[in-house]
Amino acid sequence: KAGVTQTPRYLIKTRGQQVTLSCSPISGHRSVSWYQQTPGQGLQFLFEYFSETQRNKGNFPGRFSGRQFSNSRSEMNVSTLELGDSALYLCASSLYLDRANTGELFFGEGSRLTVL
Amino acid sequence: AQKITQTQPGMFVQEKEAVTLDCTYDTSDPSYGLFWYKQPSSGEMIFLIYQGSYDQQNATEGRYSLNFQKARKSANLVISASQLGDSAMYFCAMREGGGSNYKLTFGKGTLLTVNP
Asked: Cα–Cα 20 to 30 A to A87, which of A29, A46, B54, B106?
């Protein structure tokens, strides 16, 4: 069973540009979440999508956006990049949460963004 | 106040010995879940173990066990018989409430180094 796939793995952008990151969840998983990881702030929740609807959103500016497609694949976009957006962006997918499932998140290897 | 506190930035352990990684949490929600993840240098977050707030027994998964002390709001991870491959960052995380909440709040992490 394939895991969570994130593309691209590495990318370099300059300030003011925009970037789009892609995430393919594990087959059958309908929830996709995005996290930003930096040395200073640690892991911070960006947003979560379920069946193409954003259900939760973290405390990030509107430059950070995302969407989910009907096949559960998700993209996140960051516009007008700033130096502080340099980070590892992790995508995670999950089964529905019920008595049989803890709702654990399965993570991809991340997309490492460097903003110059 | 931080919801997840990991007070040990770094820990060292000899191969084949046991090690305990500390985690305390803060929530007023009676329903919550606690997770431990391992992050090797590759970046991928690997799920290790889960403890639900209503679980009567401490969770165990192979060499991993969770020392859950609800009254003290602590959820320490115990790794028995450490191996060189256990060297990594370890994160404690919490999900509050149930239902459709898939958001995890992470601690700052503990860097574990296993010495031969």
From this structure: A29
* Residue from A87, A72, A65 nearest A18 by CA: A65
Alpha helices in chain A (DSSP H): none
**Amino acid, res. B114:** V
CA angle B104, B110, B111 (to 5 degrees): 130
Give the gap in angstroms from C-alpha A82 to the nearest C-alpha of chain B.
22
Query: CA-to-CA distance for A31 and A52, rounded, in angstroms?
Result: 9
Determine whether the interchain pair A56/B103 forms a contact, defined as Cβ–Cβ distance below 8 Å. yes
Instruction: Report the distance separating Cα A13 and Cα A72, nearest Å.
Output: 27
User: For A60-73, what is each residue's pLDDT tens digit?
Assistant: 999 999 999 999 99
Burial class (CB in 10 A: 0-12, 13-18, 19+), A53: exposed
The pLDDT value recorded for residue A9 is 96
Give the whole-angstrom CA distance, residue A53 versus residue B86. 37
CB contact under 8 A, B102 and A56: yes
A109 touches chain B (CB under 8 A): yes
CA distance B57 to A106: 24
Question: How many CA atoms does the CB half-sphere of A44 hold within 13 Å?
Answer: 15
A84 — pLDDT class (breaks 50, 70, 90): very high
Judged on CB neighbours under 10 Å (0-12, 13-18, 19+), A57 is middle
- Residues of chain B with Cβ-Cβ distance to A102 below 8 Å are 33, 35, 50, 52
